[in-house]
Design a protein that fits this description.
Alpha-Beta Plaits; 6-stranded mixed sheet
């Protein structure tokens, strides 16, 4: 069966592939716990996206299963062993500034634009079509193949946690939710909050009181907006001038206005994925750096000065004493995804720390705790997903390397990332595409897109990879 032209098989189904992908992209499957129900624990649209994939699979003759309304699978083949392919159909919020409707699947200049186009609806649909091609060609398999569909990858992974409590762990597999060639090492991910200690009474002898401060939606995104509400008891004009000078010197967009007697300052930054904070400009930290230059009340001063001391210009944990790197997976990073403050409760930072495979996170946590305690903060809501690594000489990596090199005529080098993919929920799993080398990473950004040529190429790679992993030997 070595003569199958996988690209040609995808091309035959290209129109159908695009149409089915557009149907999925039109569902605004953003986590919505406020409107959760038993049938839709993560919100109605998230459930709708899961159903969409399961119904597609049923129509095409796959065995489908819904697991607790938070995950599901589509299966083909027979045999003892199971190959798993893990994609997700939830997306991060669209945010502002799009030039097209983020939930339409608009096609322009050979690209399909939508929230989720590259992360992860496009790659998930590519993997689905890969299985569909193998099924339609009636190729003999000696293992079962399962497309496992998650719905909470962008948040707390309740989908795969639930799924693997109730369903079989694949023998090996991959997640089409990152970059080509092959990612065999993923950093550990620790998410936690730093909470300001507010036992001391606040002092209002200053000329300005910070009433509230908000920035950011998710730990794993660099915030592109920040807003502060201030009670300014003296010269508004002077503060406004200072802010405008700050915007000009930093080449930033923002606005200062007065509403109900309070001064409101808004600032725009640049969003990016929280695993590489330096690719964005953190609006919260930038606004804190401006506020650190004005005469604030004591509690607010402590909040903004801590933001600067802990994080400003330092995404590598140097200021907190946890800087670390290793050969296998690179440097530790810290992203301040959420910043909030109010006069009564003080302030909070919501962080994601991506740490290298060989980092001792227990010692790191002790160091962090000590560093933040000294500034009047404590650590809360700590959750940890340990690093993941698959050896280069494993059968999985050898097969994927051969397929990638055959399809692209380029070397399949191994990589490490700071993002977390579903690969880490597998006993033996790697992240495998669908972003090709040299393509900009537009996941979580406005005007997210996937090149249609890449969609076709990824589908062909996945089809051959699944076949080689599951075929009769």
């Amino acid at each position: 069966m070595g003569s199958i032209n996988w690209i040609k098989e995808v091309e035959k189904r290209k129109e159908e592939l695009i149409t089915d992908l557009q149907g999925l992209l039109k569902i605004e499957s953003v986590l919505d716990e406020a409107n959760a129900s038993e049938e839709a624990p993560l919100g109605e649209n998230v459930r709708k996206a899961l159903d969409y994939m399961l119904e597609l699979g049923e129509k095409d003759g796959f065995v489908s299963k819904n697991s607790g309304n938070v995950a599901g699978h589509l299966e083909m083949g027979t045999g003892e062993r199971l190959i798993g392919v893990l994609g997700h159909v939830d997306v991060v919020p669209a945010g502002d500034g799009w030039s097209v409707d983020p939930f339409e699947g608009v096609i322009q200049d050979g690209k399909i634009y939508a929230r989720g186009a590259i992360d992860d609806k496009g790659p998930t649909m590519a993997a689905y079509y890969a299985m569909k091609i193998i099924k339609e060609l009636e190729l003999p398999l000696e293992k079962r193949v399962r497309l496992i569909i998650g719905t909470d990858e962008e948040s707390k992974w309740r989908c795969v946690d639930h799924y693997f409590k109730h369903e079989e762990m694949p023998h090996m597999g991959f997640a089409p939710d990152a970059d080509f060639p092959i990612i065999n090492a993923e950093k550990g991910i620790a998410d936690f909050e730093l909470v300001q200690n507010t036992q001391e009474s606040n002092n209002h002898t200053s000329t300005i009181t910070l009433l509230s401060f908000v920035s950011g939606l998710r730990y794993n995104m660099v915030p592109d907006k920040a807003k502060a509400v201030l009670d300014v008891r003296e010269n508004h004009t002077e503060l406004m001038q200072m802010f405008n000078d700050f915007l000009n010197s930093q080449e930033l967009q923002g606005q200062y206005y007065v509403e109900s007697g309070y001064s409101i300052i808004e600032l725009e930054g640049v969003s990016a994925h929280g695993s590489e904070p330096d690719k964005g400009r953190n609006a919260g930290l930038l606004l804190a750096s401006f506020l650190s230059t004005v005469d604030l009340d004591i509690r607010a001063k402590s909040f903004v000065s801590s933001a600067i001391a802990f994080f400003f210009g330092d995404s590598r944990g140097r200021n907190l004493g946890v800087q670390y790197k290793d050969e296998m997976s690179g440097e530790l990073t810290i992203n301040v995804g959420i910043m909030s403050y109010n006069e009564q409760d003080g302030g909070k930072f919501g962080l994601t720390m991506r740490y290298p495979v060989t980092f001792n996170w227990k010692e790191g946590l002790d160091t962090l705790t000590q560093s933040v305690n000294e500034k009047g903060f404590s650590i809360a809501n700590f959750s940890n997903s340990e690093p993941h690594h698959v050896s280069e000489d494993s059968e999985l990596i050898q097969v994927l390397k051969n397929v990638y090199e055959m399809q692209t005529h380029k070397p399949a080098s191994l990589m490490a990332i700071g993002g977390g993919t579903y690969a880490r929920s597998l006993k033996s799993g790697v992240a495998f595409g669908a972003l090709f080398p040299g393509r900009p990473d537009v996941a979580h950004q406005k005007d997210e897109y996937m090149e249609l040529d890449d969609l076709v190429k990824a589908t062909a790679i996945y089809a051959q990879a699944i076949y080689e992993l599951a075929r009769e030997k």
